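**Folding the chain**
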Amino acid sequence: MPTVKTLKDRVDKFTAKMDPATAGARFAASKTIAVKRYINATAAIADVVELTRNVLESRGVPAGQHAIYYAFEEMVRKAAFSHDGPTLKAIVDGLKQQFVYKGADPAVLDAISKLVVGG
């Protein structure tokens, strides 16, 4: 009959696996791959932020009001990473209503949502 692991057993196993020298050596061996993956993952986020900035500036949104639109863009982008189709459209529509209620311009929100999710 197998022994049930206690918390102490689990902590001891974790501690043994996480020897700083071993963890450091593993990270050093995979650092070039990790950095490339990080760049690829964050490039999409940075690109959308820059495109949102272009939309805001081209539509004459004052700099003091940019934050609400960046918040909208971030929430739409997060939803787009996890959803698509009618579900994503419903989420974006709900977010748009929420941000219009907070004082955002619906036309600017539409431009940003098209930028992030298309269509």
Notes: The chain has one domain: 7-117.
